[in-house]
Amino acid sequence: MSNVGDFSSRPKVALIIGNRNYKRKENRVEHAASNARQLSDVLQAINFRVTLHMNLKKEMLKRVVEFAKTIEDGSIVLFYYCGQCRQVDGANYLIPTDDDRMESDIVASEMGANAASILRKLTDKNESGVNIFILDCVKQYFYNCESPSNSHRLPKGLKTITSSNPVFIQFACGAGKIVSDNRKKNQENLFAEHLLNNIDREDVPIIDVFQNIAENVSQESKGKQRPFFMNGLQQYDQVCLYTMPDEQKIKDCNVRIEELNDELEDIAIKQPQGSGSYNRDASCRLGEIRALIHKLKIRRQNAIQRKYSTLPAK
Fold first, then answer.
1. Any idea what the Cα angle at residue 258 is, between residues 252 and 259, rounded to 5°?
2. Mean pLDDT of the region 252-264
3. What is the pLDDT of residues 149-200, one digit of tens each?
4. Which phi and psi angles does 125 have, rounded to 5°?
5. I need a surface site. Which of 78, 198, 214, 281 has the fewest CB within 10 A?
6. E-assigned strands of the chain?
7. Mean pLDDT of the chain
């Protein structure tokens, strides 16, 4: 399987988790749900089979195990987690949203999901495939007994992770770093914004996609946020997440646009009679869907132009 093209027809699956609703206001990750939904939309549009979970509680590891059972060796497997994480004794623990009793490192290690364990469970099922492991954790997590005024004394960010299996590991910021709470509004979501804008680039190798994301985030943050990645894919880093003939791209865009238009209609139908405006969640979802439809129409038009520009002249 040394040939990059060997992956063009392989299964593509993704597990996406967005954890927002933590007990303490300081711990809430406001963009987590939207990031997870939008990434799910984008990946489905490039033929990933997506499993999406929101606000997972202590069953997080169970959901990972369930997903791992569906992996076929030789696939492209993507894992994305947006939420809180706490470093304990050199290990990274993804924090569930039922964190009422999160008082200490001991509780975090008991209730949290060890990121290295999740990585191992996924990659062990896909030893001859492509694995992408993304942790979008940029905020400081506070135990119930901790004060934000003492945040300078707390462990920062994520510890680097290693794996013996082929995997591309991506952190939203540097290892051992967080995004400062003093940054401008929405600055803590820079990585996700650039991830969503780049992950579905056509015929671009994985390594180039993530290098571009890192460069864009670093540039826009003026060097204050530098996403860390570790490329363990070896020869597989030239695999593209989205590559197929233009005729198939046109068909895929048509199918996905139709599905999204159906979702728009469903939202409108569920709107209460006589209501002059949508609620916050519905308005947010409408914006996400319309933006993706616009993107897909552009992709479809580009594919149509390429297809007909290559036809022989009569």
1. 90
2. 94
3. 877 777 778 999 988 888 999 999 999 999 875 455 557 799 999 999 999 9
4. -85, -5
5. 281
6. 12-18, 49-54, 76-82, 85-88, 91-94, 113-114, 130-136, 168-171, 229-231
7. 90
Name the residue type at position 156: K
List % helix, strand, coil for the chain (3-state, nearest 5).
45, 15, 40
What is the identity of the amino acid at 275?
A: S
Q: How many CB atoms lie within 10 A of CB 227?
A: 26
pLDDT greater at residue 144 or residue 271: 144
Q: Give the start-to-end residue ranges of the domains of the chain.
A: 4-238, 246-309
**228 token code pair:** 């860390």
> What span, in angstroms and rounded, lies between the C-alpha atoms of 20 and 55?
6
- Its pTM stands at 0.89
Pairing assessment for the beta strands 85-88 and 76-82 based on DSSP bridges: unpaired
Question: CA triplet 191, 192, 198: central angle to 5 degrees?
Answer: 90
CA distance 101 to 78: 31
Q: Using alpha carbons, list the distances in angstroms from residue 68 to 51, 64, 73, 127, 169.
A: 11, 6, 10, 12, 17
Looking at the domain 4-238, which fold is it?
Rossmann fold (3.40.50)
